[in-house]
Design a protein that fits this description.
With about 140 residues, the chain is an all-beta fold. It is built from no helices and ten strands. The chain has strands at about 5-15, 25-35, 55-65, 80, 85, 90-95, 100-105, 115, 120-130, 130-140. Strands 2, 3, 5, 6, 7 and 8 form a six-stranded antiparallel β-sheet that branches. Strands 4-1-9-10 form a four-stranded mixed β-sheet, with no helix packed on it. The chain is globular, with a radius of gyration of 16 Å.
Length: about 140
């Protein structure tokens, strides 16, 4: 039986405090601090326990963040599809924009620290100077 995946979407916008001359080149996105498929990893095997393992996924390449506008763009810059996630200490999103690395802790999706399969989590991120701000988040059930 196939398990439903979690979709994480990232809308990355220029903030008001962003160099006009900077191109807004996004060259890497890393999501870290999660355990994936944890409901299947509950048994310790000898002295090693998979639940203690924290994962990260990095996307690299070339993308452009959305231009600044008084009404921020909703265009998705990048997305990931993963097995259901657990992140007891939160998910960290790290971006490299115009060669500058920046990170932000994403808001929790639920009280039990889980990002559930069959759900899309959209985070709106604003690049403001040399830092990232989470300026919006929506959670929607995927259509069946």
């Amino acid at each position: 039986m196939e398990r439903p995946l979690v979709t994480l979407e990232f809308v990355v916008n220029r903030g008001e405090v962003f160099s006009v001359n900077a191109p807004g080149d996004l060259t890497s996105l890393t999501l870290s601090g999660y355990q994936s498929g944890c409901d299947t990893l509950s048994q310790a095997r000898g002295m090693l326990n998979e639940r203690a393992s924290v994962n990260a996924m990095t996307l690299t390449g070339a993308a452009r963040i959305n231009d600044y506008a008084p009404e921020p763009s909703g265009r998705v810059t990048a997305s990931l599809r993963l097995l259901p996630l657990v992140a007891a200490h939160g998910l960290t999103l790290s971006l490299t924009v115009d060669g500058r690395p920046m990170s932000v802790l994403l808001p929790f999706a639920s009280e039990d620290c889980r990002w559930k399969g069959g759900t899309t989590y959209r985070y709106v991120i604003t690049v403001s100077g040399d830092r990232l701000l989470v300026t919006g988040m929506t959670v929607t059930a995927d259509k069946k």
